[in-house]
């Protein structure tokens, strides 16, 4: 996906952005996200918005070694380069658990997230592990019950690429 397919925040008008319909699939998120303030861009028809960390549900554990490595990278750049991937109805984190943990450790309140419905055929799930059969139901159940899967269990594949957003840590509360 090229940068031209992203619509910058400056061009967004309330209700005038087709991708913003994903914001309203979850009533909690609809009350917390201000379209004018929190929408970063759209990647095709999917919004990338600043989402409060407190409303997100992880479905996987994290790898401590990767967590340490990513924290160093984020602190050295001062940026979150790509959004996490979040299921828009349940607010289950599909990809980006390590970024979320780093931001929580740093005391941040927000994270850039691409919101997408699991019902969308653009989203597929597989497993990184040969001994696991991962389904969308398994991912959602893990996220909503708190019974986390081991790290690197699920692999989400989209029909689009996650855009670079380069959000400074200072913008994340």
For this structure, what is the CATH class? Alpha Beta
Spatial order of strands in the largest sheet: 1-2-6-4-5
Point out poorly predicted stretches: 1-15
- Quaternary status: single chain
Helix-strand pattern = HHEEHEEEHEEHEE
Strand content: 15-25%
N-to-C span: 29 Å
Number of strand elements: 9
Please identify which CATH superfamily we are dealing with. Conserved hypothetical protein from pyrococcus furiosus pfu- 392566-001, ParB domain
In round numbers, the mean pLDDT is 86
What global shape is seen?
A: globular
Word description of this protein:
There is one protein chain. By secondary structure, the chain is of the alpha+beta class. The protein has a single domain (3-172), classed as Conserved hypothetical protein from pyrococcus furiosus pfu- 392566-001, ParB domain (Alpha-Beta Complex), CATH 3.90.1530. The protein contains 5 helices and 9 strands. The strands form 3 sheets. A 5-stranded mixed sheet has the order 1-2-6-4-5. A two-stranded antiparallel ribbon has the order 3-9. A two-stranded antiparallel sheet has the order 7-8. Helix 3 (64-77) crosses helix 4. The protein is globular and about 45 Å long. Residues 1-15 have low confidence and may be disordered.
